[in-house]
Amino acid sequence: MSDQSVKYTPGMRVIIRDEEWMIKKAEKNTLGNDALYCTGITPLIKDREAIFLSDLEDIKVVDPAKVKLVADDSPHFIKSQIYIESQWRQKLPTDTKIHIGDKACMDPLPYQLEPAQFALRKPRQRILIADAVGLGKTLEAGILMSELIARGKGKRILVVTVKSMMTQFQKEMWNRFTIPLVRLDSARIQKIRASLPSNYNPFFYYDKTIVSVDTLKRDVEYRTHLENAYWDIIVIDEAQNVARRGDRQAQRSRLATLLADRSDTMIMLSATPHDGHAESFASLMKMLDPTAIANEKDYTPDDIKGLFIRRFKKDIRNQVSGAFLERKVKLEQCEASTREEYAYDIFANMHLVMDEGKTKGTGQLFKTSLEKSLFSSPAACIKSIEERLKKLRKKYEDGSMPDIFALEELKEALTQITDKDFSRYQKLLSILSDSEYGWHAGASDDRIVIFTERIETMKFLAHHLKEDLHMKDNQVQEISGAMGDTELQKIVEDFGREESPMRILVASDVASEGLNLHYLSHRMIHFDIPWSLMVFQQRNGRIDRYGQAKQPDIRYLVETCKNEDMRGDLRNLEILVTKEEQAQRNIGDPSLLLGQFEIEGEELIIAGAMENDASEEAFSEMLSADKEESFNPLEALLAQAKPAEESTEEIQVNTTEDETLFKDIEYLYRALSYLGQKTKQPVEKLKTVSGLDIGITDDMRKRLNALIPEEAMPTGDHLLVSDNKQYCMNEMKNSMQKNMEETAWPTTQYLWKQHPLFTWINDKAGLLFKRDEVPVLGIQNQMQKGEVVFITNGSFPNKKSTSLIDDWFGVCYKNGQFTGIVSMEELVQITGLAHTDLVNAGTISDDNLSDTAAFLEDAVSKAKTYLSEDLKKYRAKLDPLLSEEINKLASLEEKHKYYQMSLFESERKKSEQERKVDELFDKFEKWVTESLSIEDRPYIRFVAVLMGV
User: Fold this and answer.
1) Is-contact 259 158, C-beta < 8 A?
2) Phi and psi at residue 449, to the nearest 5°
3) pTM, rounded to two decimals
4) Is 934 within 8 Å of 796 (Cβ atoms)?
5) What is the pLDDT of residue 361?
6) Distance CA 196, CA 219 (A)
7) H-only helix segments in 651-744
């Protein structure tokens, strides 16, 4: 049995059942014995979780000096080189530099690296990335996620997004960052449940998943499963949808609040992160940090500093020369037809009894909503009239209600407006056929997005465009929120595929949120003018976004008429377009003009102005006036630029190159070639580009099925990978344009340090030597006889067993005397370890091994002395930060208690609230202490020994 006198601590390595484990947590049970919560280290049990009881298991603490030195007899020491490389590549970055995110399959602009750099400098990576539409928030999230994965903090990932974005987000994460998210729709979750015991949590089935927020919120059973699951990273896309609205907390908000407590890291993404109400924005901030805000109605920018980053195009203009082409915007004027004028006259003179008693100027008159549908299309207005008539006839069976006659008269006038009389539709046809516009239906790489607010307008346009442009059904496609997630995602994919016959996408505003429509389209036409500046941004951002290769061409169809009342309202919509474009260029956020920050609020203001018959001057002034608010979340967001250390302009991005023995492609080729001698693993270099053609064996397929998304797995027996970034980016683009019968995933995958292949190959290479064996290499030429270097890995964990220091170095001896410590980079340079033509003369004898083994105890001592300096430096740097965090929490706790005490008069209630505050801050103080406090118990491991011969 185990030695009961041993003090087990987090980070300690132990041998249990002949495998090596790392202790994550040690607890005493009621009998005084230890319960050890462990994670597997050696390849056969890697990352597996287990609990061992010290009184029932034979537990041995790993002693780095008690290893067996074995001479490597492989040609050119390839066996040891592969083994050393497999271990070195698992070194965890412990600084705040960008190690890997800048090397993803994209051409990152400096500003896109800033959110990751910003977050890595915080104790916890919990951040709202609130950049404007089209700047690449998904990519910025991928960069940060990659950095966390490299640091061992991204084994389990959950992404929550809207249903229309699932496939797009999944592909971006795989194609650019090789982050393998499994798409969990309702059907797949049910399939998983059916194959599992009833008490098994389906969220443990896959480590990295993406799921629709609507799927999660529908099933009350998910709540229990979510409460009992934990992730390393949780990402919430379109986070504005989960903010609390008013006093009522919607299902989405409750779900997000639950998830906020299920992960150390949380990344929120939103281009429209607030609705102008302090409480709503505070709900997002409290999901990121529940201690930040005491009073949701009264807080300052300082309270939420460091929890978000927000930039507009104007802020990053000096970084993006050529990346964002200046959009071309044009208002396309047309005059109302005779039949439209007749309908407008009827509408303008129409008085509705149902609107009596309602306050004019509130934007809530039925006539106003009817005008909105009228300005969309006759078909949309007829639909609105029919729905209201149905209700009125049911309520007034005798038909005596005057509004019934008025609405029927308007409907009759609208039915007389044929497509030939519909001026904006005819203008649309004119634009599409105009040689100056330059669009041709035959061009497979030039597609058009037409936006409209109303479903009936969408249907009208799709139907008539097919007829009048002589296009087939599959060339003009509709997209709306009524579609299921699978159908919707397929349409979006096909729109970006060159072989798809689709040429025109007629979209309702469901497509204005998050979707990438820019791959083969740079043209957008607003068939109707939305009554919200935020909708303008969302729509235009579908084609005017990072990655757009052509100048965005945006057209607004605007109409004029003779009826003075209607002409004024139509003119105001023109002003809305003009003001939005000016604000986009000058202040970055057009929603600031109305100060509402939510679509519904903006629509009410515009509608109110219409009801009050606002003049052009008054309407224009309304869009220019400064908004006085007691709290403006936009100002809070931008206020982060005020303190120098937090300023967006002052975020200095520090990137670094992690040295390894071999480049990715060379390491993989050498490892597969060597390991394949026994397993018959075929591998060949690609002839036209740097890359590999890897034959997939049964063993490899079994492992990769667990590491690569099902959709991305090759259907044949070959896996193609390339480390040529530009080639893979082209492959990514081409995959969107393949034959419709083929997959829309690239056939050649991007090979970089994070590709799951390296997880598999590192594990296999880690078995080349037994757990207690250390290879010895006899180096000629680069080293002299009598020289010995112990390649050493030393690390210090925190109280949660996460490495805070992870160092690789060489402990050097010459003729039996210690000569010093060299960094791993220096070691490689002076020993020539990375040379592929090292000569293995096989001259290491048993006596040589025995003599070298005599230094092991001293090498451990020297390594500890060296690492103690690392420890001092860490503590000198982090102890002040720890004290600052603890003091900050203490101050915030007092603020929370003071506010909570002010809410209640009952002593019982006050006591209850005080207890809740204590629990919250005790929890956070424990997390800070356990995360930042380093354990003075270094783990030392000898990876290999180099000996001069």
Assistant:
1) yes
2) -105, 125
3) 0.82
4) yes
5) 76
6) 18
7) 664-679, 698-704, 725-735
